[in-house]
Structures are given as C-alpha cells and as structure tokens.
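Now for a concrete sample entry.
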Amino acid sequence: MQKDFLSIADWSRDEINDIFDLTADLKAKTKRREKHHILDGYSLAMIFAKPSARTRISFETGIYQLGGMALYLSPQDIGIGTREAVKDVGRVISRYNDIIMARLFAHSDILELAEYSSVPVVNGLTDYNHPCQIMADAFTILEHRGSLDGMKIVYIGDGNNIAHSWINFAGQVPIHLVICSPQNYQPDPKTLKDARDKGLSKIELISDPVAAVTDADVLYTDVWASMGQEEEAEARKKIFMPYQLNMELLSHATSDALIMHCLPAHRGEEITDEAIESKHSIVFDEAENRMHVQKAIMVTLARHLNG
C-alpha cells in the first residue's frame, strides 16, 4: 500500500476497489447519520496554492465527519515554494498534523512535499493530475451502472489534469477510454504511453467529437481554460467550440449515456445548460461523491500510517 495518494497510477486495481468498497460503506453511514469517527483526534492540514470551493468543503466536512479537524492554509499563509521551500513546509507541517492535503500548481511540488513529509500526503490537484476527482467520478459511474469493465468513457476537451488522471485510471482498471481533444491540446504522450503499455484498457485519441462519442456510455467534459490559463480563454473558446457537450452531440452516444463534469461549469461554453440539467446528467452526484471518496482515501492512508 502507498503512503501517499498522489496519482491513481500508484495504486493497484485491488487497492482502488478497496477504496470504492470503503467509500460505499462510509457514504451509507453518512446517509444514516451514523457516527463513524474512525479518525477521531486526527488533524488534516489543507494547503491551497489554488483556491477551490469543492475541494475545501469536501475535505473539511469529510474529516469532521470522521471525527477529526481541518486546518485551512491559504496561499498567503504558506507561500509554498516561494516564501518557504517545499521540503521545509513538508517537514514542519507533518510534525503538527496527521494528514496533508495540497492543491498546487506544479506537480513537482506535490512530489517533493510527499518526499519530505512524515505523514500521508493527498493530491488535491496539480496542473498535471487530479486523482481524487477521477476516483469520485469512477465511483459515481459504478453507482449508476454497477460495473466499469469495458465501459466506453469519452473525455471531450483540453488534454489537461482531468484527462491525465483518466488515462492513469485506464492503466489500472479495464475501460474503453477515448480522449477527444483538438490538435495541440492533447494529453501528455508519456502518460498515454505508460497506460497503453499496461495493455489493460483500450485507450484512443480521436479528434472528431461525433466519431469519439458514438456509442459512448459516458460523456465527460471540463472547462476549456484551467486556472492559470485565463489569458488564453478567448482564443481557446474559438478552438474548442466544436467540442461543446450539447444535446446534439449526446444524440450520437448510447440512449442512456451519462453526462459528467468535474465543475465549476461554464454553461454555454464547454457544456450547455440543457445538457447539464438533462436526465442524463450525474454531475451533482459526482460532486457529492468527492467527499465520500476522499474520506475513504484518508482512512486508508491513516490505517497504513498506523501499521
């Protein structure tokens, strides 16, 4: 078992399934309002270089439900990698807290933080990947479909951190993954090669949206310009508009295809209001499941910490 949760590629299929089983159990306890203070007395340090509503709310509420407490550390509080070296932050904070969650820009920073931390580190997002989100997404598909094996999941949009984590997931769990991005906006070639080399999933790059979503079980999209890319937003709108997830595009998928988006959504850009509000949408189920999956990840890491 890994000490940290930095990338789905680090975790075996059995370990991923164990997290999903634990997620289902913790979610059921939450719905029954049954106390499950598994992490009673634990503290979670949350380092935010990038702000996020869902990440803060889901982690802070989740650790509280597990009997612990969270400490929110803003960019002004830490200045990780600028005001203070990453390795120093890791060594100091891990002497005060039991788990660290960090939402950062550079992926190299989360790797360094984990290297020097004496407690588990959870990747709340980097520019390279977003593993907690995709674990929540996959769990949500499981809830709705009962299985992931062979499921055709089509990600439409920028080959960003969401795309990379879906590719990492396809390297560990057998699915049919299609990444549909414009030329020059495709995902990292090495990440793609590493997942394909495992020979577990069918992983395709298709630039034509209609061809990509034909017979798809899941259609997934994300914003066209991520945090830090604001200056490119207008140019990207013109390039990505043919990749908008709308009802016409949905008509080429299976009749019961699911629509997903990691949020926040720019309605009228990467997804239409009609699509996100349609009966196909499970967007808010996946948003809720961020908390349940992250609780399972924290419990799993804490158990490893305690031997």
Remarks:
- The chain has a mean pLDDT of 95.
- The longest strand covers residues 43-48.
- The chain has two domains: 8-130+290-305, 132-286.
